[in-house]
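We modelled each protein-ligand pair independently. The example shown here corresponds to the adenosine-5'-triphosphate entry; the chain sequence is given first, followed by the ligand as SMILES.
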Amino acid sequence: MELLRIENLTKTIKKKKILDSISLTVNSGEIVGFLGPNGAGKTTTIKLVLGLFHITEGNISVCGHDITKDFENAMKNVGGIVENPDLYKRLTGRENLEYFASMHDGISSENIDGIVELVKMSGRIKDKVKTYSLGMCQRIGIAQALLHNPRLLVLDEPTNGLDPIGIKELRDMLKFLSKEADIGVFISSHLLSEMELMCDRIYIIDNGVIIGEKDIHQEEESVDDITYQYTFVTDNNTKLTAYFNALQYSSAVENGGVTVVLSRNEVPNIIASLVQEDIKIFAVNQKHRTLEQDFLSMTSGTKTQIR
Ligand SMILES: Nc1ncnc2c1ncn2[C@@H]1O[C@H](COP(=O)(O)OP(=O)(O)OP(=O)(O)O)[C@@H](O)[C@H]1O
Ligand SMILES: [Mg+2]
């Protein structure tokens, strides 16, 4: 089921286009990553989805409810945290959740217990928030976002400041929520490696524009179509380069051989014709073309992204 649909969303602040006609979807049971460098527009998008900002153009609907036309029903189905969870440090985790629960109708004490259990904070829930680690605060933040039982959970860089164990715990928790509770998760990050491990799909945003979408699982299935970087180590780099030029592949002499990007199923034919050409092949090394490379080739650069 489709939980979030963003269509041609544009946000202009003081005549500056922060988001330029972005479109994306999130389905139930799915963790969808929103990956982009600092200033790309992630927080802005998330604030719009949570109804904290005014839409300039385009539509957002949550569970089929347009957030402009049917704000209340849309908001009933979405919970989220923007930047950091806002907690009362002098209160306990439980008191914080009770306070937030009081802002919604019909959240019972048992509901709160269930959510505390879900985010695995039962052991520390009676302690004051000021004694919590960052990871524990994140858990309470997620619990808070889940209190009114939304179908869609929206999290803005929740792994910020977490150590690798904290990140793994968060990842396991979100996977549990998406797969067992059938919740859709929309999560932003600027860390690709983290997104690759956590998400089912990833949208890449740069300068307010969605520049790519990746289906993580699909890649695993159709191995033959994925492109890899291959280095052919042979006795004749010149001849090999000419061979690739003739095929209109761009190659480079590096890594002790000739490097070229090919899909896996092209390799056997190429090796066969190199043998025909009397080129001696000592090795063909395959380097996985990671999402990182795709990301870098899609974004304008690596360091100078901030507008
Ligand atoms: N209230 C505002 N007024 C003016 N410009 C804003 C405002 N909020 C955001 N921006 C600008 O919009 C752009 C996108 O900001 P946003 O916070 O959405 O990026 P982000 O992807 O969340 O970045 P980060 O990874 O640093 O959190 C930035 O250029 C930012 O300066
Ligand atoms: Mg941000």
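The chain has a mean pLDDT of 89.
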